[in-house]
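Q: Convert this sequence to structure tokens.
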Amino acid sequence: MKLKLTNEQKLILSQKMQQSLKLLQMNSHELETYLNELSMENPLIEVVPPREMPPSHEKQFSARTTTDPDIMSRTIADTPHNTLYDSVKEQINYLRIPELLRRELIWLADEMNERGYLPKEEPELYAFGGSIERYENAVKVFQSLEPAGVGARTLGECLLIQLRRRGAEDDISREICLSYLDRLAKGQLNYIASKLNVTVGRIEQARSLIAGLEPNPSNGYYGGKQTMYIRPDVEVVQDNDGLAVAIADRYMPTYGIDSFYLDMSEREDLSDEERTYFREKLTQAKWAMSCVDRRAAMLMACAKKILAVQHDFFVDGVSPIKPLSDKAIAEKLSERGVSISRRTVAKYRENAMIPSTTGRRKR
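A:
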């Protein structure tokens, strides 16, 4: 054993530096929550309400007395914290149908998943007296409920129900929904057109129509947890000089030093303990404000760089006639010092629900 002295440099982050880095990574909601909690324990932090209130995403409910099934279903959907299951059950109770069929519909409602779909596989028919005809009839009635598409057993069937409700179903859209949705999602319009012996323009019309449909009938209904809406940190706006970036802070409270408590901290009749308390709180408040300013400056710097590099995207929208493959993206990142595999790029792309090269190519 022997003792050895060496000189080496180490970067040691203080607690404040670590917290400052965390603040830089917070989104607007997380930052607002953190600063509001901090203001509860620090009287020198003043919270000023936002200049604008964000638009409400919650539907308003107004009580109605009606037997109209369309109005009744919309009323049910508008009820706060009302699930799709609740809506379907109440619609079933309003229907003027034989009691046997009502029990069959309730059985189907219990089989419905959280998206509003019925099982694709044919169920045990004991609930329908062993009759496939009774089962199909009950499904047909179930699919007549609101919202359009509820009770579908496949995505294609869900979309077809909505097309029929709109009076927009035709041979082309029906064939696409039943047989070519995967090809449509990949942007293979020429392939579909050749198979259906129609023009690509006709397929584009069908795609626009289908894109406006709702694949999840349960959307708009309470799913058992509060929906968190993301507020943007920055916005790209048009001004006299072209496109520019701006901090989207109009929905955010503003924070500053409370003048009342600041004056109180400077009173001469304070005890040593009180003076120490105010000094510490003032230091904390100034540090928090400086972190907010640094975060805003960092966001602006990053946003300006993104706008400069991706200017054409903000002007024209998505238009990669020749989109980069996962391999090409990995290679470009490698050239910039980011070592990443093609499969990792593909994983992040799929998690973000970004189509493959074929699906992104404009035809």
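Residues 52 and 251 are 5 Å apart (CA to CA).
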